[in-house]
Automatic annotation (TrEMBL):
Annotated source species: Bionectria ochroleuca
Coiled coil residues, start to end: none
Listed Gene3D superfamilies: Jelly Rolls
Protein name: Cupin type-2 domain-containing protein
PANTHER family given in the database record: PUTATIVE (AFU_ORTHOLOGUE AFUA_8G07350)-RELATED
InterPro entries for this protein: Cupin_2, QDO-like, RmlC-like_jellyroll, RmlC_Cupin_sf
Domain Cupin type-2 as annotated: residue spans: 41-110
Pfam family, one: Cupin_2
Signal peptide as annotated in the record: none
Amino acid sequence: MPDRPISFVPTRAGEIIRIGPVVCRIMEDGSNTDNRIGAAEFTVPPGMDGPPAHWHEMHDETFLITAGTVRFHAPEGKTVDAQAGDYVVVPTRAPHTFSNPGDVEARFFNTFTPAYYINYFKLMEKMFKSGMPMNKDTVQQAMSHFATLPADGEKMKAKPAEGAN
């Protein structure tokens, strides 16, 4: 029988990454899973837009909304307002972005397979702390290091939201 330990992350544990007002609590960086899965909890302030529209060449993401509302933006202006308990899967090559349209903070549990994308958030924190401008171009440049490419943001401008009310 294999003798490999399980990993336990208590409620207030995990590496904390701050990217401006967004807080990321890394719960699994891939070191316990041979880089097969990474996991983090994000807190996004009210009314905040997320990253520029993008798609991933090499990893899938999942989002479990735990508080507030997270609006997912997809091509042709399609949006889904996901609320606490809702689950969103973003497969490889699916253009997307997200925002918090609400007046309260939003929280979600996010997974990445494989886990290497966790390092994107660490890079973003370093860029923010160094005083680099956090605009569309610098964020997309950071994403490009992690097999993530820009999507046409104009085609993703929001239309009326679908989903949970």
